């Protein structure tokens, strides 16, 4: 059995993903969600988990530093890479939405300033709508931008809507549903076909139990 390396981000994705992986019978004795370790191996040495920034997961997989990556569809849409996207894990569910002040109107004649962690997704969305934009790339706390007059609207992740609500903002339009995807390096899929398919089969079985 060849060892599989799986890249994912610490935090909300890892906490749920590791529960799913452990459902397949794999066990990571050292893992706990407050650990500062960045690399874990299961007790039978089948899987090596590496923790990287969410936006870097597709890069590790494209370059072959990881065979498999678990990453939000938002990251894959913003910066597409040459990888296979083979499975939806049904975790990390949220939406990418346009948000702003209640009653803000977005029309074809608008010229909008848009703040986002996802400038490419935002640009493509408004181009499709024939709306001219000035896109401002931010790396977090995006909801602040309309409040201080830096942007008319934002494009950001919405899950419960609490962050928007607490900042006096509302969803103006939904762009796309997001969840965590399993991506695979193209060469790894050729070389480690059996291992990868077995792993995915076990994950599917775990998902069925979960549903
Ligand atoms: N509020 C949320 N609810 C559900 N899923 C979310 C939420 N926010 C982000 N996600 C999903 O989880 C992934 C990782 O989010 P996370 O907040 O851990 O990363 P990040 O904000 O990009 O990284 P960092 O906090 O290190 O800057 C996102 O790419 C997205 O797919
Ligand atoms: O609808 P909610 O349940 O409130 O979740 C949405 C919030 O979660 C994410 O932020 P995150 O915690 O990753 O912080 P950051 O992007 O500002 O770093 C996202 O960017 C929203 O701000």
* Radius of gyration of CA atoms, rounded to a whole number: 19 Å
Distance between the termini: 29 Å
Spatial strand order of the main sheet = 2-3-1-4-11-5
Number of strands: 11
Q: How much helix, percentage-wise, in residues?
A: 25-40%
How much strand? Answer: 25-35%
Low-pLDDT residue intervals, each spanning 5 or more residues: none
Q: How many H/I helices?
A: 8
Class computed from helices, strands and strand pairing:
alpha/beta
CATH architecture label of the largest domain: 3-Layer(aba) Sandwich
In total, how many domains does the architecture comprise? 2
What characterizes the major β-sheet?
6 strands, mixed
Bound molecules: adenosine-5'-triphosphate, 1-O-pyrophosphono-5-O-phosphono-alpha-D-ribofuranose
- CATH topology of the largest domain: the name is D-Maltodextrin-Binding Protein, domain 2
- Average pLDDT, to the nearest integer? 94
Which keywords apply here?
211 residues; alpha/beta; D-Maltodextrin-Binding Protein, domain 2; 2 domains; 6-stranded mixed beta sheet; 8 helices; binds adenosine-5'-triphosphate; binds 1-O-pyrophosphono-5-O-phosphono-alpha-D-ribofuranose
Please write out the topology.
Layout: E1 4-8, H1 12-22, E2 39-41, E3 47-51, H2 57-63, E4 68-72, H3 73-78, E5 84-88, E6 94-100, E7 111-116, H4 119-128, E8 132-137, H5 144-147, E9 153-158, H6 162-166, E10 170-178, E11 180-184, H7 186-191, H8 193-210
Parallel strand pairs: 1-3, 1-4, 7-8, 7-9
Antiparallel strand pairs: 2-3, 4-11, 5-11, 6-9, 6-10
The structure holds adenosine-5'-triphosphate and 1-O-pyrophosphono-5-O-phosphono-alpha-D-ribofuranose.
The site of adenosine-5'-triphosphate (ATP) has 14 residues, from helix 1 and helix 3.
